[in-house]
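The records we work with from here on pair a chain with its fold. Taken together, the tokens spell out the fold as the letters spell out the chain. To see the layout at work, look at the sequence and tokens printed below.
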Amino acid sequence: MFFSDFSDGNILSYGSEDLVICPNYEYDKIIDCNGGTILPGFTDAHTYPVWGGDRVDDFFQKVAGASYMELTDSVNSSDSDYTVEQTAIASEEALYHATLKRIRSMASKGTTTLECKTGYCSNWATEKKILRILTRIKREIPLDVSITYFAASILPKHSTFSALAEDVVNTRLPELQNLMEKGEIMVNNIDVRCAEGFFNIDQSRQILSKAQSLGLKLNFHAEAISNGSSAELAASLNARAVSHLDEVSPAGVAALTGSRTAAVLLPTTTLLLRHLPPPAIAIAQAGVPIALGTDFRANLFCTSMVS
């Protein structure tokens, strides 16, 4: 395939070299595709690229059949605790270089746009550190990076989700706004895990509504492990997107149909955790926009959108 020129992102002509109409033009660079095909870059809609340590043991637990709750319980999962601790103690510079290497690996496989979440944080200080790292990467690399603050993704020991929700709304989000206004960090979206055993509907609404009032887009976890009407919550708040939807009900799909919310499906996660797959056909037939994500993270090292 031979392309004559790009102007403002538009292809002016295409075809085999002898058929393309080429006006008098001096090319800065000619690339021989060697019989290959030029495609748009991939968009990875769900990633967690910043962490310290590794989760090799956790991966083998998944393969052996450990449940989602067993692997995400911040109190009982030693592997999760290890990653949280390693992320907290790692220097900002070390985490930056590790993250940059991971994102370059994703780019080498065709990903040019990606959503990057915070995570593996049991305190606000570590969340801010990760946001600074993602902001630096967004400013320095030639990829489109959408930064998501995954609010209080890990429940600290001796705390409750009710207390955590209050802290996010009254302390963390106001400070987040201040840091954004000073240009220290860039944040595009807010995420919460709305599910049984995590933030409930009311707590999620409280956090999401506050973030929305600050100008953040809503992009959160919904119906991953149980049906709890979080898809309906997303529709009512005009969320940009919701992820997982493995357990979404027909009512949830219907609610999304009347909204502009996209469904982010994560097939690798569904397969590895042996979940029933989300009703992708019903979601598509209902006219809900669908995006895909790798769910790239410490215990799911998938950097490719195609393999």
Observations:
- The mean pLDDT is 88.
- The longest helix spans residues 161-181.
- The first strand starts at residue 2 and ends at 3.
